[in-house]
């Protein structure tokens, strides 16, 4: 039933959710109802929407397992990360990854931090640990899943860091993670999590969320009131906020455990096929697979994919495939058949 809600899949091989998630018929119809309400109720539409901020925050907090008062609706990740970094003190020693999402890097460059960067490798966790010790790092900013390669950071490692360095602040971009797997912020090593909703959460454009830990608020001398005033200083996009609320509720209704298990089987299948075809997928040697698989860019493969109307992304030096709940075994078998043509 889940797949049938996405008509674009009827005419395409779509492996580009990491760039943008597809719109469902259900969300389209819901958004139409919201717009009709605006059309027919005028100013009352905005009055009613403002009263629902509390409901939206509660829905987000239920979905990611955070405290409601420390959870906020934001228009996108780029806005959210800047709200967060505004609370960090000048000259803070901040560690990030060179290949990070551009909005992370630009947000750091805009501020008066001492920024240390590490090149991504299969030893990134060890490099992070060494840098923290050597440079007395105070804040780490990184993606839960790297957007170019799909490398997923080891939560166990981050938990160990929090034990060894209790004052360390860990800020995570979850845009390539939330919506792909179960996540509980309160049990996680993160002090802040920020995510856009238009990728894996399938909520359309103009929405996202962020959540803070009590540790972050204490370390930055902040509180929920300060953050609230900053985030909701102007009007918010009501249609986008309600779209996020709708999509989060949909994710709660479906058999998420089953879909996650099935998706992991698909990812494993594609990974094994890419290895068999000697296409050298970027692998996490710790076995922490994400929903993204990337192979080195190759002109012939690129042309084959374009010719067969396969939707994917070029990121850095990689061709990136992303597999979501609406993909199925047939999609992947068709993709593998196309990739095999390279050897023909």
Characterise this structure.
The protein has 344 residues and is an alpha/beta fold. It folds into 2 domains: 3-23 and 254-343, Aspartate Aminotransferase, domain 1 (Alpha-Beta Complex), CATH 3.90.1150.10; 27-253, Type I PLP-dependent aspartate aminotransferase-like (Major domain) (Aspartate Aminotransferase, domain 2, 3-Layer(aba) Sandwich). Helices cover 43% and strands 15% of the residues. The protein has helices spanning 25-41, 43-51, 53-64, 77-85, 102-109, 124-135, 155-164, 214-219, 224-231, 238-253, 256-276, 299-307, 329-340; strands at 13-14, 71-74, 93-97, 114-118, 139-143, 169-173, 192-196, 208-212, 292-296, 310-311, 313-315, 318-322. The strands form 3 sheets. Strands 2-8-7-6-5-3-4 form a 7-stranded mixed sheet, with helices on both faces. A 3-stranded antiparallel sheet has the order 9-12-11, with helices on one face. Strands 1-10 form a two-stranded parallel ribbon. Strand 3, helix 5 and strand 4 form a beta-alpha-beta unit. The longest helix has 21 residues, at 256-276. It is globular. The mean pLDDT is 95.
């Amino acid at each position: 039933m889940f797949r049938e809600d996405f008509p674009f899949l009827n005419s395409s091989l779509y492996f580009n959710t990491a760039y943008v998630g597809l719109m469902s018929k259900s969300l389209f119809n819901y958004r139409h109802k919201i717009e009709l309400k605006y059309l027919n109720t005028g100013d009352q539409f905005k009055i009613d929407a403002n009263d629902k901020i509390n409901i939206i925050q509660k829905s987000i907090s239920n979905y990611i397992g955070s405290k409601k008062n420390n959870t906020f609706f934001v228009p996108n990740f780029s806005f959210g990360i800047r709200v967060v970094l505004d609370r960090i003190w000048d000259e803070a020693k901040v560690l990030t990854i060179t290949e990070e999402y551009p909005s992370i890097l630009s947000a750091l460059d805009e501020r008066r931090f001492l920024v240390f960067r590490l090149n991504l490798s299969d030893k990134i966790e060890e490099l992070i640990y060494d840098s923290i010790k050597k440079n007395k790092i105070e804040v780490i900013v990184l993606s839960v899943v790297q957007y170019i390669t799909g490398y997923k950071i080891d939560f166990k490692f981050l938990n160990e860091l929090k034990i060894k360095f209790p004052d360390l602040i860990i800020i995570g971009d979850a845009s390539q993670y939330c919506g792909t797997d179960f996540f509980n912020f309160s049990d996680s090593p993160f002090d802040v999590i920020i995510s856009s909703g238009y990728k894996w959460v399938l909520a359309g454009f103009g929405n996202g969320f962020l959540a803070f830990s009590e540790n972050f608020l204490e370390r930055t001398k902040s509180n929920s009131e300060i953050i609230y005033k900053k985030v909701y200083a102007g009007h918010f996009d009501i249609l986008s906020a309600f779209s996020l609320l709708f999509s989060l509720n949909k994710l709660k209704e479906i058999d998420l455990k089953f879909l996650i298990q099935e998706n992991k089987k698909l990812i494993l299948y594609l990974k094994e096929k890419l290895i068999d075809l000697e296409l050298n997928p970027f692998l996490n040697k710790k076995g922490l697979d994400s929903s993204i698989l990337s192979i080195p860019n190759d002109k012939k493969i690129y042309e084959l994919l374009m010719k067969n109307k396969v939707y994917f992304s070029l990121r850095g030096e990689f061709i990136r495939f992303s597999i979501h709940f609406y993909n199925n075994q047939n999609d992947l078998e068709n993709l593998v058949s196309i990739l095999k043509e390279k050897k023909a």
